[in-house]
Amino acid sequence: MGYRGSKSNIKLFVKEQRVDGNSRLNKRLRCTLMGFERNYQIRILSKVLHKKEVKFYSTSNPQKQISINPWFLSGFIDGEGCFRISLTKVNRALGWRVQLFFQINLHVKDRALLEKIRDFLGVGNIHDSGKNLIQYRIQTSDELAVLINHLKNYPLVSQKKADYELFKKAYELVIKKEHLNSKGLLEIVALKSSLNLGLSEQLKKAFPEIIPAVRNINFSVSIPDSNWISGFVSAEGCFMVGINKSNLYTTGYQIYLIFTVTQHIRDELLMKCLNEYFGYGKLRRIRDVYEFQVFKFSDVEKSLAFFEKYPILGDKAKDFSDFSIVASLMKNKVHLTETGVAKIRKIKEGMNRGR
C-alpha cells in the first residue's frame, strides 16, 4: 500500500480494503428521504476550523489537538479499516492456530491520526509495517471487544459491514473457545473463505470441502451522521486543483477545483446516498467504480463550508487547506492573473503525492 494521500480521480484508482496473507443531524438520513442538509453558510477558509472543539488546524503543526468524533471513526474505518481472520499451521491440537485482527494501514505521515484513534478507543498498538508505512492493530479478545462495542453504537455503512459481520461471528466463536474443536474450526474457515480475499491456496488444499459462509450484502444503507462523512472522506476523498491550457483565458490557463470520492460498484447504493445527501455534484459509473464529483465552483464552496463544520483529519487536512486557499484566490479572481496562476501552480505542486 503506497502513500494514501488524496485519491486522485485521474487514474480512477480504487484501493481495495483487502489485507490478508491482506452536530448529529436532526433525523437519521436514509437514501429514500428527500430532506437533506444543504443550506450551509458559505465561507472560504485558508485553514481548517475545528469548530466543534473550538480548536484550529495549523499547517505548521497539523495534528495538534485533533479531536476524534465517534462517527468520524466509523466513517474512517469504512474507508481504511480491515478485518482479518488468520489461520496458521502449528504442530499441536487441531494443527491450526486462529487469530483475529483489526488493522488500519497508513503512510507514516498519518501517525498522529492513528495515535488519536488509538487513544480514543484506548486499545491497540501502532508499529512500522513497511517502507514509510505504519499499522494500527487491535488483536486481543479484550481489545476487540472495545472495537465491537464501538461499532455496535456507531455501525459501519459501506459493504465493509459485511466483512465486519463475518469477523464478528468468528470473534464470538473464539470467545466461546469453539475454535478449539473441529466443528468450530471449520465454521471459522467457512467465515474466512467469504472474508476479504478468501482462502489462500494452502488453506484451500487443507480444507477442500469447505462451503463459504453466506455473506450478507442486502442490508439497509444510510448516512448516519455528518461526522461519518468527514471520516469517510478523510479516508477515501480527493481534493484536487487542476490547471489546463486554454485560449479562453488571458493567462492561457484554466484553473478549476474538483472534490471527489471514488468507490467500487459494490457500494453503488452508498454512493447514491452520498450524492443525495449533499444535494449537488454528479455521480457517474466508470467501468467498475462509481465516482462522486463536485466541480461547479458554487458547489465546491458548499463542500468547503461542510468540511469547515465537520473537518477533514489526518495528513489530508493539509490538502483540504491548500484546496481552500486556492478557492479563496479564485473567489477573488486572482486566478485570472499570471501572478495568480503561478501562485496556484506552486500550491498544487505541494499537494497530495507532491507533498
Automatic annotation (TrEMBL):
SUPFAM superfamilies: Homing endonucleases. GO terms for cellular component: mitochondrion. Keywords: Endonuclease, Hydrolase, Mitochondrion, Nuclease. InterPro entries: Homing_endonucl (IPR027434), LAGLIDADG_dom (IPR004860), LAGLIDADG_Endonuclease (IPR051289). It comes from the Eukaryota. The keyword tRNA-binding does not apply. Residues 73-171, 229-325 form the Homing endonuclease LAGLIDADG domain. One of its GO terms (molecular function) is endonuclease activity. This is LAGLIDADG endonuclease.
